[in-house]
Amino acid sequence: MAVNVKDMMKKNKSNRLLLRFSEKAAPTIFLLCAIISVLTTIGITLTLLMETITFFNRVSFIDFITGTKWWPFGENPSFGILPLISGTLSITVIAMAVAIPIGLASAVYLSEFASPHIRKIVKPILEILAGIPTIVYGFFALTFVTPMLQNVIPSLPVFNALSPGIVVGVMIIPMIASLSEDAMSSVPNDMREGALAMGSTRLEVALKVVVPAALSGIIASFVLGISRAIGETMIVAVAAGATPKLSLDVTESIQTMTGYIVQVTLGDASYGSTTYYSIYAVGMTLFVFTLLMNLLSQYISRRFKEEY
Amino acid sequence: MNLVDKQVIQNKMSKRLVKNQFMNKLFFSATAFGIVVLIVLLYRVLSEGIGHLDWGFLTNFASRFPEEAGIKAAIVGSLWLMAVTAPVSLLLGIGTAIYLEEYASRNKFTRFIQMNISNLAGVPSIVFGLLGLTVFVRLLEMGRSIMAGGLTMSLLILPIIVVSSQEAIRAIPKNQYEASFAMGATKWQTVRRVVLPAAIPGILTGGILALSRAIGETAPLLMIGALSFIAYLPENVWSGFTVLPIQIFNWTGRPQEEFHLVASTGIIVLLVILLFMNSIAVIIRNKFSKRF
């Protein structure tokens, strides 16, 4: 078949305009996509700020951050966020008490003890655990963990801080395990071999060489875990109850910041009421807390990173 | 002459070896704990919910009576939500990743975008719900519609898609680019004909995993005001809707024991859908990903 080169060149020329246009347009279009993510952040900050300012026009800021009574409904509402913070804190502390030891131990096992064969089986299972929706965990907390705990502590009410706290911890285990394992795996093998050659047992290598060397990554994973626990919503909304209380008794029904936001959206706080604006103030507090945690985690992993 | 007293060494060593063995077992049990929890969770859900799982459950609307309660509206609602979320989040996510990897110069602005994305990934989902409620539902007057919910979800999973797409693009070796440029291709031609085809398996894998996160997400949609009792199918993206997790949340919240069983059945359906999506992701990863 004869190919007419002249025709091809002509065609090419007519295409060139389109080509030049798409060549110019492509980066701009992609830049616009990238800017959407920045706009999202600006949007979050602005909406939270605007509505929070409206809220603080009605409720004094000092009362909000120092008040010990959170009673947003009915007459004489009182907006002191400390009970919600204490609720969030109890959940977070219980969760981390579960997630840090188990997550770190799993990471050490997977990185230092497990054979490649076992690792190949266990890691996907942990991934499945990480992919289970939080509402399923919430259901599990309410219908399995709470009754089980009631066998041990008969006086435990249906809604309490202990059960969702434990389940939030279980939810975070895979995250801490996999992030810490990544940190440990990146410790070079020479260091392990050096220690082994000196007669260390595997345990001593793990605890005295690998963990210290990977510490920045491990701590960063803990901090990220805390941030997740603070922001966790559905588990606490289902199983922790709705009684904001300034107490550290984990067997009582409590309310977290996230739990309160859910409660208000489910109820019928009319648009424009102080209760309606209070969810933004609480959301702002939540946002600030988690943002600080995330920044701290990034700072730790960057600042204290050991390079080999 | 005996330079090394074997007895002393053995005494010293045995303690350390026992400790090593013991901690090995302990670490193993910690790892096994996660697996046991998963098994118990799945067993509980299956044993409670399987009895209710039949064709009627999939084709009935929600009901006041547990035996008649079905999940049709929720399944259709979740599909509608995906129909909005998938194209929006994939287009924006891939676009952002291409910009950051191919076009962006290494300056402060690029670093800012990158940091912004990694911080967005850590924002609690309920805060995205507040954003959706304020901007999409109220400010843009979309109402409590599929559109508002879908856009909120898109923003929520956007960071995940961007990061996984970036990784997929970064995995393409430089010589592929050089070959393309050497043939006279322009930047955009290279991106379109070399980079994207090579990166698409990785991008899709990450995208599907992100979408499966969106299917299981409850909190932001509760904020948007997805209803839990809906006895009709949505007609277009401006209709009210419900999704699987919200329906499960609603059943879980009821005091009657029977509804908890129905919730289990709903969870089975949700988990089966997630399993299906994840297997597709794994298949794509194993079958189509190229090694250079």
| Beta-strand percent range of chain A | under 5%
- Low confidence ranges of chain A: none
CATH topology of the largest domain in chain B: MetI-like fold
Question: What is the N-to-C order of secondary-structure elements of chain A (H for helix, E for strand)?
Answer: HHEEHHHHHHHHHH
Order of helices and strands of chain B: HHHHHHHHHHH
pLDDT < 50 stretches of chain B: none
CATH architecture of the largest domain in chain B: Orthogonal Bundle
The tally of strands of chain A reads 2
CATH homology group of the largest domain in chain B: MetI-like
Nearest-integer average pLDDT of chain A: 88
What's the count of strands of chain B? Answer: 0
- What is the 3D shape of chain A? flat
Find the structural class of chain B using helix and strand composition: mainly alpha
Helical residue percent of chain A?
Answer: over 70%
> Could you please say which CATH topology of the largest domain in chain A applies here?
MetI-like fold
CATH architecture title of the largest domain in chain A: Orthogonal Bundle
- What structural class do the secondary elements of chain A suggest? mainly alpha
How would you briefly describe this protein structure?
Chain A: Residues 85-297 form the ABC transmembrane type-1 domain. The complex is a heterodimer of chains A (308) and B (292). With 308 residues, chain A is mostly helical.
